[in-house]
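During the first year of the project, the team set up a workflow for recording each protein of interest as an amino acid sequence followed immediately by a discrete structure-token representation. This format lets reviewers and collaborators read both layers of information side by side without switching files. As required by the reporting guidelines, we include two representative entries from the current panel. The first entry is reproduced here exactly as it appears in our internal archive.
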Amino acid sequence: MPADRTAASTRHPRHQRRGEARLPAAVATVVAIALYLALPEQLLVGPRFVVPALEFVLLVPLIAINPRRVTRQTRLSRILSLSLVLVIAVTNLGALALLVHDLVAGAGDSGQALLLGALQVWLTNVIAFGLAYWELDRGGPVKRTQSGRADLPLADFRFSQDENADTVEEVADGSSVKADWVPTLVDYLYVSVTNSTAFSPTDTMPLSSRAKVLMAVQSVAALLTSLLVIARAVSVLK
């Protein structure tokens, strides 16, 4: 068997029980905070620095608990992590509501700023829901890597790797059954991107009611942003 296929079943982080790296989630959160800070004044939910300060307050103890790899989970860390995602998502939906109001009202004095703000809202939407899927699916990142499959909660999403065990060898060797594969943040961000561009599931299917609700909210928010930006761009061109 080629070395890369052998590695698929022997070197996956789940086998080593090392957990996911903290850096990607921290970077994604910081990017979402930066995008909020850069929003036009009329799209801010409250004073500019209040929401980012709250998000940093929630992020710092999460990094302190798991500075390098996400391997430990306490009741407090679970509450903090879910609260952080909730703050990012809710404030971004609030910014979207303000964006819809301003674009529909035709704020002509700041059309360029609003179009740029729409892009920022769309990107934050991708990050926020990607983090939400990452935190909720199969009990969260700690459960997915530190618990046996029999102990995992029911999955919220069905990835293609979850049903590849009976395909050709070069595909099956990387499946959940043969390689003990579990999704990481990159996989959930990909789900978030595709849901925000196709406005529906693509290769990853939601299984639970909460996953379906989250994907529905995200796709509607992305669709609204896209339609309003296109409409605004057309009006500017005219």
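The second entry, processed by the same pipeline in the following quarter, appears below.
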Amino acid sequence: METITRLDLGHFTRPAEEWDGPHARVEPVLGYLVRHAGVRLLFDTGMGTGSPETDAHYRPVRHPLPVGPDDVDLVVNCHLHFDHIGGNRLFPTTPVLVQRKELAAARAGGYTIDSLLPGVRYEELDGEHEIAPGALIVPTPGHTEGHQSLVLDHGDRITVLAGQAYDFAHEFGSPYLPWLDRLGELADGRPARVLFAHDRDLWEGVLPPPR
């Protein structure tokens, strides 16, 4: 059976200066438990245990992951900022798929909470990677150079777990980013549903064909 279950992993408060807004904004932290083509995967793992400096800056409220190592075969991180990888260490023997350039940037320091990186079985990818029939990781750089999304092909439609490729559903597709052409190619005129890491709303429509 194919399912996508959204997980509420808490929220944090982003200061106004970090998004050029008039005030601070509260953002949900969302993960997704996916069962597709016989594979069980977890897309992002929440904030986990932070650092005093990070907690003072973002005032996070954390919700525990409702799944454990026995429940998933793979973990996929859209990128390696602290609010997406906090639970990775709860899966010490589970492969965690990440783009090679993203892991290199994180390990260089000053990128995430460094204490969240060790003790994880990272498997480095260079570009697209098929997890299972109809489950494809696609690079979606922008928020970070190594950002990636997961495309699930259901036959009559596709679902994209877009992570933080865009912050909000209403922003999806604007500004134009070149990888949108690849999503349009994969959709091939079929309806698409796009889910996000920091927005409970979703985008639904037909992706334009490649430019």
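For the second entry, the following points were noted during internal review. The first strand starts at residue 3 and ends at 14. The chain has four helices and 13 strands. Both points are flagged for discussion at the upcoming steering committee meeting.
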